[in-house]
Design a protein that fits this description.
four-stranded antiparallel sheet; 134 residues; single chain; 19% helix; 6 strands; alpha+beta
Length: 134
């Protein structure tokens, strides 16, 4: 007996995210690169758009990292995060996009990104990605 794969109404709605050019994340030299210390950012008013309904999604983005030779510059992070405001993007892809872009730009020793979203349709979503690099 073969199972039919049902078509998803979400197909092709996120293919562009991997190539999406967001505002650049800037950095500065970590003059304490020989020390292990954590930097935490909380973005309590994160918004993006549901790619299915076009309605806004609200949540909190938490970023924690242990810098290597570079630290993330705060003003550029704010501009970067604002780019998501009108973007149709799934919760999972928000977290992975932020994680990938930060890791690529500053090469941290450790990075964790959490998307803690307000309930939608009676379901609360929390997406976490973390990795030790060194």
């Amino acid at each position: 007996m073969s199972e039919k794969k049902s078509a998803s109404s979400y197909e092709d709605k996120q293919d562009h995210i991997l190539d999406w050019q967001t505002p650049p994340l800037e950095w500065f030299d970590n003059i304490y690169s020989g020390q292990n210390f954590a930097i935490d950012f909380t973005i309590p008013e994160f918004t993006a758009v549901c790619p299915k309904t076009g309605l806004p999604d609200f949540g909190i983005i938490l970023i924690q990292y242990i810098p290597g030779s570079r630290c993330l510059e705060l003003k550029s992070l704010k501009e970067y995060i604002l780019a998501f405001r009108d973007k149709g993007i799934f919760h999972e892809n928000v977290v992975n996009k932020i994680f990938t872009d930060i890791a690529k730009q500053i090469s941290p020793k450790y990075l964790k990104v959490v998307g803690d979203y307000n309930p939608r349709g009676g379901i609360k979503t929390v997406v976490t990605r973390e990795e030790n690099f060194k």
